[in-house]
Amino acid sequence: MKLTVKLFASLTTYLPTQAENQTTTLEAEDGSSVGQVLEMCGVPLDQCRLVMINGITHTNPAVSMELELREGDTLAVLPKVH
């Protein structure tokens, strides 16, 4: 399935070099979870604080990492602030 992934602040280092405006498009297996997609990108899951799927905010990282993504979804992630 095709997804749009947006990573912000310190997480932008995990985007591919061709990413524009902190955004990339990638292919993932049908039924992939948020955590699986972030692991594909090399993002350390313990650094994620706020997850948005299609503009809907999920503030509990433990729960949001298990959410299943669908074709065409936009996943946006903000890091923890230290």
Report what the structure shows.
- With 82 residues, the chain is of the alpha+beta class.
- The chain has a single domain, classed as Beta-grasp domain (Ubiquitin-like (UB roll), Roll), CATH 3.10.20.
- It contains two helices and five strands.
- The chain has helices spanning 34-41, 61-64; strands spanning 2-7, 23-27, 48-53, 56-58, 74-79.
- The chain is globular, with a radius of gyration of 11 Å.
- The model has no long low-confidence stretch (mean pLDDT 95).
Task: Outline the secondary-structure elements.
Elements lengths: L1 E6 L15 E5 L6 H8 L6 E6 L2 E3 L2 H4 L9 E6 L3
Parallel strand pairs: 1-5
Antiparallel strand pairs: 1-2, 3-4, 3-5
Unreliable segments of 5+ consecutive residues: none
Domain count: the total is: 1
Task: Summarize model confidence as the mean pLDDT.
Answer: 95
Order of helical and strand elements: EEHEEHE
Kindly report the spatial arrangement of strands forming the biggest sheet.
2-1-5-3-4
Short recap of the structure:
With 82 residues, this protein is of the alpha+beta class.
Write out key terms for the chains shown.
globular; 5-stranded mixed beta sheet; 82 residues; 5 strands; alpha+beta; 2 helices; Ubiquitin-like (UB roll)
